[in-house]
Design goal:
With about 300 residues, this protein is of the alpha+beta class. About 25% of the residues lie in helices and about 25% in strands. It contains 7 helices and 17 strands. A hairpin with a 4-residue loop joins strand 2 and strand 3. The radius of gyration is 20 Å and the shape is globular.
Length: about 300
């Protein structure tokens, strides 16, 4: 049995190490997404290459472009515009290199602090349409401070039938922008796969069975229990489903925001004296569809 498991592990590792070659760049699979080499995003990128990137980010969900030259704020915005209209957050820091670049740090004089530390989430869950993409560039790399991602479809497919049935009945109500509500589980606008609209640190309440005669809002205690239940699916088995990205010089990430949840690790806010200065630039792309279920919920899930 040990020999069989060892051989299986070697086989899996050989697959993970396989380089996927396209006409324009090479991709190496990682735990969640791919590393990309052979393309310099700081230079002009041809339209056909951009179209390939769009297809690949939908398929792989996270693309980590390695060994990039310095990406200016202006260039970061140019790259982001390939994917649609930029939609800036309401946080603005005076040291941001561009009005559409969100600058975060572990030093308040350098960027907004405490960002991403309130719970697992997608960006823009409080919007009518959650952000479609998030693009990240580490302007100054600390010794420690990874960003942690998790695949949302796999979270859902890993649920027990009973828990899936419960989650299908829920809408989440944001504590921002007039308590906007969306179905907790909905259809990804491009892949069609089931994903989550959620922010565990910005949820006012949940709605059970919206637009039915059983429609009701959760009270505080029930809301907290549901948040804990969702959180558990991300951290169970010692966080086995998570991918922790340890930033290296020249990393530029394009992520399908509606396909992956994320959370900033505690180390992202460690003192500068302990881990060094951390400065992350992020842009977000406006979503194009309000979250809806494009499938029929089976009677057994009601």
């Amino acid at each position: 049995m040990f020999k069989l498991n060892l051989n299986l592990k070697r086989f899996i590792n050989s697959i993970m190490a396989e380089v996927i070659k396209t006409k324009f760049y090479e991709m190496t699979p990682i735990k969640l997404g791919v590393e990309v080499r052979g393309l310099d995003l700081s230079q002009e990128v041809l339209p056909e290459v951009i179209e390939q990137i769009k297809k690949d980010v939908t398929e792989h969900r996270i693309m980590v472009f390695k060994n990039q030259s310095k990406i200016s704020g202006h260039r970061h915005v140019e790259i982001s515009s390939w994917f649609g209209e930029l939609e800036s957050t309401f946080y603005k820091h005076p040291r941001s290199p561009h009005p559409d670049v969100f600058r975060v740090s572990n030093n308040a004089s350098e960027g907004c602090t405490g960002v991403g530390r309130t719970g697992w989430h997608i960006d823009g869950s409080f919007q009518e349409s959650p952000f479609a993409y998030s693009l990240y560039y580490m302007e100054n790399i600390p010794k420690d401070g990874p960003t942690t991602f998790a695949p949302l479809n796999e979270i859902i497919t890993g649920l027990s039938p009973e828990k899936l049935a419960r989650w299908e009945r829920l809408c989440m109500c944001s504590d921002r922008r007039g308590n906007r509500h969306h179905p907790l589980i909905y259809s990804h606008p491009r892949s069609g796969k089931k994903v989550l609209c959620f922010h565990l640190g910005m949820t006012e309440a949940f709605i059970w069975d919206k637009d039915t005669e059983d429609d009701r809002l959760t009270d505080w205690r029930e809301t907290v229990e549901l948040i804990k239940e969702i959180h558990h699916e991300f951290v169970k088995d010692n966080g086995a489903i998570q991918y922790s990205h340890k930033w290296e010089k020249g990393d530029f990430i394009i992520s399908d925001n509606q396909a992956v949840g994320h959370e900033a690790s505690p180390q992202t806010q460690y003192p500068v004296e302990e881990v060094g200065l951390r400065i992350l630039h992020r842009t977000t792309i406006k979503g194009t569809e309000t979250p809806v279920k494009k499938y029929k919920v089976e009677a057994t899930e009601q």
